[in-house]
Specification:
33% helix, cobalt-factor II C20-methyltransferase activity (chains A, B), 4pyrrol_Mease (chains A, B), 10 strands, elongated, alpha/beta, 7 helices, 4pyrrole_Mease_sub2 (chains A, B), 5-stranded parallel β-sheet, 2 domains, 5-stranded mixed β-sheet, homodimer, methyltransferase (chains A, B), 4pyrrole_Mease_sub1 (chains A, B), Methyltransferase, Cobalt-precorrin-4 Transmethylase, Domain 2, 239 residues, Cobalt-precorrin-4 Transmethylase, domain 1
Amino acid sequence: MYGVGVGPGDPKMMTILAKEILESASILLAPTISMESSGRAEEVVRAILPNREIERIVFQMTRGTSGQTLRESSAKAAARELFERCAPDEDVAFVTLGDPSLYSTFYPLARAVSQLDNGVEISMVPGIPAFTYLACRVNMDLLDNSERLYVVAVVQDEDLDRLCDLLADRQATVVIYKCGRRFGKVREALAKTDRLSQALVGEQLGTQIERIVEASLVSEDYLSYFATVISPAIRSDFG
Amino acid sequence: MYGVGVGPGDPKMMTILAKEILESASILLAPTISMESSGRAEEVVRAILPNREIERIVFQMTRGTSGQTLRESSAKAAARELFERCAPDEDVAFVTLGDPSLYSTFYPLARAVSQLDNGVEISMVPGIPAFTYLACRVNMDLLDNSERLYVVAVVQDEDLDRLCDLLADRQATVVIYKCGRRFGKVREALAKTDRLSQALVGEQLGTQIERIVEASLVSEDYLSYFATVISPAIRSDFG
């Protein structure tokens, strides 16, 4: 079973290997929150392989303290469904946004599949992560010399305290994922640490409705789930 | 001018967009440490586009306290060379390993080019970073729920102190770049923070001579420049 990262949303961000696997797999599965609507990963595949048959598998993507449990049980249900639908020896590819090793929907599924049948061979195919895509879109250097990069998720209020600690490291670029529902608090944290004016927000990256904007100009307190925030390291020599 | 990330070394890790740009650019430049030998980025392009003409541009990649200055002056020299060689309006693509926003050779060059002629349009094309490639190769989940990811470089001894602080955060996955010459010290830091047994080392990723091995089994104190180390977050529920 392949877990194929398709990148943030722009179909051309798919790797050559990812495309080959999506073409050759006998069954292609895409996660969705309901059978009636397509997920974003499915949209990416459709744009590059319009005639490919794609099956949907319902997957609860909610995270957080209680979300984690929900996600685990959802992954287990999806794994059982996968075993019912696919004959053994079938070449199954499961598509996931971004990269399968970074906050992906694939990993909990792969774990649940291994628990049901540990003979299934799992293979993860890397994808362009949303944060490097966003950095490249605006010609931003995330890391140089001995600078550091922190990638954090803000899924609960406790994560905000740690975020402030990390933002205090001026030589670090901080990438914030999953902060959509707490964007107002994140903006406060950026302001408190003097980082608001340089921070960026990206939403719907790689799609037709992509929005990339300075964090200081975003007045909403809630953003979409897939919003990505970058607060660049503070540099004296260039901007 | 395009800065095209070609991924860690496996030609199939190139994105569809990267391949298109490498095919269509009128001049393709690859960095090398000497005109007589090919750099790794050039090798990746050759594997996927064997008939493509690739020009070499000498680039000093050494970093660190003094390396930084050397790198800046090397970037300036490369930028001047680029202006001498390329006619204006030429469609130039410069290839770089991994992703252009992460410790890449492209960024200092782009900055130097902008300083010589700020009318040059710069465009960065994302590439698969070495660390997510390494994670995917071993089916490792780098980040889940509210875990954190720290990407750090160890170019000087002072970086080792901070590394220990970061390793102390048990819910963080720590990726270590550029620690080749100080691997012995990094191994000590991993051992001191009880993380040595789970840490991984990857070298020559994506190439024929790729080596992926547990850090505890690596006895050398010096590794190659492009070695990547991953110390996964400490989890209780699964391995």
